[in-house]
Design brief:
The structure is a single chain. The protein has 109 residues and is of the alpha+beta class. It folds into 2 domains: 2-61; 63-109, no CATH class. 28% of the residues lie in helices and 24% in strands. A 3-stranded antiparallel beta sheet has the order 3-5-4. A hairpin with a 2-residue loop joins β6 (75-79) and β7 (82-86). The protein is elongated. It binds zinc ion (ZN). Zinc ion binds next to α1. Residues 4, 6-7, 9, 44-45, 47-48 line the site of zinc ion.
Length: 109
């Protein structure tokens, strides 16, 4: 039995994700462990591994790059530690989800 380092669920079917990307992942989370070969690892349950793979697939398919290339996005927003550009409709949806409806954005240009 082990505890998933992402969600905290107890699971008998352990999975170790190992990442090697020449980036210090301790800045993302202290849950990553640096391996002797320089890679980073984290123990997860099946569900969390599946969530990671879904995000990886979304990224590999270019969906994040597509989001950042639209010219009508002139609102700079920090989301999960990175900068994201949003248009007015996306800003309104974002602030509504956070319970901050009506909050004014910082616009570029
Ligand atoms: Zn989990």
């Amino acid at each position: 039995m082990f505890t998933c380092q992402v969600c905290g669920a107890d699971d008998q079917d352990a999975h170790t994700l190992t990442l090697s990307c020449l980036y210090n992942l301790s800045g993302i989370s202290d849950k990553f462990r640096k391996e002797p070969d320089g890679s980073w690892s984290i123990r997860t349950c099946k569900d969390c591994r599946g969530n990671f793979l879904a995000i990886l697939q979304y990224w590999v398919e270019g969906n994040f790059a597509e989001v950042d290339s639209r010219p009508d996005r002139n609102i700079l927003v920090r989301v999960h530690g990175r900068t994201v550009m949003m248009n007015t409709q996306e800003w309104e949806a974002h602030t509504a989800r956070r319970g901050e409806a009506g909050r004014r954005p910082h616009r570029l240009g």
